[in-house]
Design brief:
Blueprint lengths: L4 H6 L1 H5 L5 H13 L1 H16 L9 H55 L1
The chain binds zinc ion.
C-alpha cells in the first residue's frame, strides 16, 4: 500500500491504539522508516498519548453489565410468559366451569320438564 503522510497521520491514533489491520500497520511502519516528518509526528503523538490517562475502550464492567441486563430482560420475559400462561389457564378454567354449570342447568331443567 502506498501511504501518504496525510494518511499516516490520520491513522496515528488508531495505530497507537492498535486498532488498524496488520496490513495498515505494516504500511505505516514502512512509511515511518522512510519519512522523518511522520516519524516525529508519531513520536510526539505517542508522548502525548502516554501523558493522558488511559481510556479503556472495553471497561471490565461492560460484560458484567450486559450479562445483568440480559438476565433482567429474560426474567421479565419469563414473568410475562408466566402470567400469560396463568391468564390463559384461568380463562380456560372459567370457561370450563361455565360450561359444566350450563350443562348441569340444562340437565336440571330437562329433569324438571320430565317430572311435570
Ligand atoms: Zn510521512
Amino acid at each position: 500500500m502506498n501511504m501518504t503522510c496525510k494518511i499516516a497521520m490520520d491513522l496515528a491514533e488508531l495505530y497507537q491504539a492498535d486498532l488498524v489491520s496488520a496490513e495498515s500497520a505494516e504500511a505505516i511502519r514502512s512509511h515511518l522508516k522512510t519519512c522523518p516528518a511522520c516519524r516525529q509526528y508519531y513520536r510526539t503523538f505517542d508522548a502525548v498519548r502516554r501523558q493522558q490517562p488511559k481510556i479503556d475502550l472495553q471497561p471490565d464492567g461492560v460484560e458484567e453489565m450486559q450479562a445483568k441486563l440480559y438476565a433482567d430482560l429474560s426474567r421479565k420475559l419469563r414473568r410475562r410468559r408466566f402470567f400469560e400462561i396463568v391468564g390463559t389457564s384461568a380463562a380456560i378454567g372459567a370457561g370450563s366451569i361455565m360450561l359444566v354449570i350450563g350443562l348441569m342447568m340444562m340437565n336440571h331443567s330437562a329433569l324438571l320438564r320430565k317430572e311435570i
